[in-house]
Amino acid sequence: MTFEAKTSGSDDLKAIISAISTLVEEATFVATAEGITFRGMDPSHVALIDISWPNSAFEKYECDSDIKFGVRIDEFSKLIKRADKKDSIEISISEQNMLLVTVGKNKKYKMRLIESSATDTPLPKIPYDSKIILSSSRFDKILGDVQVVSDYLTIHTSDSKADFSGKGDSGEVVIELEKNTDEIGEISSKEDSTGTYSLEYLNPVVKAVGANAGQITCEFSSAKPIRIEFKVANIGRIHFYLAPRVES
Amino acid sequence: MSTAKDIRRAILEKWHENLSKYGNLFSSNSVSGSSPPSIFVGSYNYPKVFVGPMVPPIHGDTSFLDTPEKWEGKSLEEIINFRLNLIRGVKKVSINQTDGRYIENLQEITMSSKPIDSDLQFIKNTSANISLNGESAPFGPIGEIKSAKFYNTSAIKSIEKVFYDKDFNAKDAVLHLYNSGIDISKIQKCFSIGMLGEKRKLVPTKWSITATDDIISKSLTDKILNFSLIDSYKVFTYAHLGNYFSVVLFPHRWIYQIIEAWYSNDIIGFGSDIEDARGINYAPVTAGAYFAAKLGVTEYLLKNNIQSGVIIFREIRPEYAIPVGVWQVREGIRSAMKQIPIITDTLDNALTLASNKTSISKSEWISKCNIMKLIHQKTIADFF
Q1: What is the ipTM of this complex?
Q2: Per the structure, how many domains does chain B have?
Q3: Min CA distance, B194 vs chain A (Å)?
Q4: How many CB pairs (< 8 A) connect A and B?
Q5: B126 and B29 co-located in one domain
Q6: Measuring CA to CA, which residue among B348, B347, B252 is closest to residue B301?
């Protein structure tokens, strides 16, 4: 069995691990000839992360049989944080079932693997009616603006317009978005859509992936989960699914 | 209805009546009797705490004196009399000192399957003047130990195993004992007297009770998360010792809230805590009751292979004049879960049923119930 994956810098891996850490304490990655994937839900099953990191996104990638490896995210994260921005990170698995992590040229870590408990998690089946593409820094600002008055973000789209709003005990806020500014890539909707989502889940993941993501794509339908796509290393991606809040 | 004060007075009068008959037994420089077995680690003066055995001036099968698991149906007065019979010997010991003859003796009696004949000599006469207040659980007279002798112990095998095997961490040791069928009150004593884990130390009794309930109920919750959801709304109720419990189970991924209400000078006070599948990440205001109740209800869910959301109402009535310890919440919930539930088809109906026999209105309970907000949150699994 050969498995070796080497990144050219450390930012993408940091962003991925950081995003996963907002949902779970333990993660099982799957490596195949095509690349590395991860899928997992938080314990409450409110959010799901689905990561696909194709082999072409790596500086060097080799995997001749499918393997699964489980890590404690806090342990892995500490170690990855020792890398400078430009440091490459190389991971492989030793015969003693340890994860070997080479950071930069000379830091060689060995980390214990944990028994992988992953079950096959399906993806929610949703026809998305609305789509907003905007910069992640703008989205982060919007979340901050809404959080001042509310624990939840409501997104509403109608034709090519979108607004973000929130309501709480102290008051409410509406932020209107207009297409064709630098920060807004696209607003489109097949049908008017309104969805409400918890900032408790949105904030950490947007902060975790951070400026790394550049443009992000939000897709949703009324009272259905939202899917946010963050691009990683141009061709890899993180899909973050968040279940809605509904009035019942 | 008698007030808390009347009840406290009645209990004290009975105690003094006992004293006039057997006073010499409770105010003496020695006690000879069978420890249930029982040990107590105080929290006062932490980390140099007062540690010792509890011994009643009675020989024979005294095990019921300190085994709450056997107290179902007993009255507050009876339970307090159990407690007051126990004379507590103490020595000041640093929490890090888990070896040495004194502590090793206490560990041996804690392991025992039977009451232990014990002779304690005190430096001074114990004082039989005990006082009861609304705060701490009562026990009998206290004496500082000059010498202590214990006879013939016979160890429970599963406890012996985790005691001598220092590779078990404290958590695994607690779970091993629980899965071997050892009573919670026994596991808690082992935990308290520094018998479990890799780095051992003495743990004040009141903290060890919470720690034991927390460890076990968390492990049960982890298992329950894999079960399918309950398909109806169930309401269980039970009352004992001036406490009224309503437990509502409803179809939802694990989520748990306990709301406590109590009377203080005719004003109702409330406290509540909540967790979802991520667990609780702060110290609950309902303290030990939070984990004790969680244990009682998770045992039920595990036994029935189901998962549910849980709302518990606990009304503490004035008749609960003297707190007797968190065990009564654990056993109260366990008893509630043995009753035949009322089954209904909406959460709203279930909450009506849960409020019915309490003296607090449904709307008041619901105003404290954060779960009502949280159930608007859908899960990803709803869209698979």
Answers
A1: 0.91
A2: 2
A3: 29
A4: 55
A5: yes
A6: B252
